[in-house]
Design a protein that fits this description.
Blueprint (H helix, E strand, L loop, with lengths): L5 H7 L8 H12 L4 H8 L3 H11 L14 H42 L3 H4 L16
Length: 137
């Protein structure tokens, strides 16, 4: 059994090859004249993805296939409705956060005005509000 060393592995790997533009055009011309893409790939030791890239770029006969995405109309309508609802929820959240900040500031200012911590003492003490008491007849 033959041992494989690191040097053997690197030499067996394909090396990066560069094809000039004229060489690419010549390969594309051969494909346009009837050579299959797989045969060209094997003949010139180049990947088929490179062949297709060159065909899109240089071929006058090659027409790339269209990728068709099929989506039911109801799905797209659902997506639009969900996006709209999400934007409304974010808008409401923003308003709620702004209102919360405002209310905290009001409590803070009222605490300073009444010289007491309303956050801690709100449940225990009542604000000094004057009320008219009912007179007994």
């Amino acid at each position: 059994m033959k041992k494989t060393t690191k040097s053997n592995l690197t030499s067996s790997r394909s090396k990066h090859r560069y094809f000039s533009e004229t060489a690419r055009k010549a390969i594309v011309l051969e494909i346009d004249e009837g050579l299959s893409k797989a045969e060209a790939s094997r003949k010139y030791q180049v990947s088929q993805s490179s062949i297709y890239t060159w065909l899109r770029k240089y071929s006058k006969k090659y027409v790339a296939t269209l990728k068709v995405r099929v989506e039911h109309e109801s799905d797209s309508e659902k997506n639009k409705a969900l996006k709209k609802e999400l934007s409304e929820v974010y808008e409401t959240l923003g308003r709620s956060q702004a209102e919360n900040i405002l209310l905290h500031k009001i409590v803070e200012l009222a605490s300073e005005h009444f010289e007491m911590d309303l956050k801690k003492n709100f449940e225990n003490k009542h604000l000094p509000i004057t009320t008219k008491s009912k007179q007994k007849k």
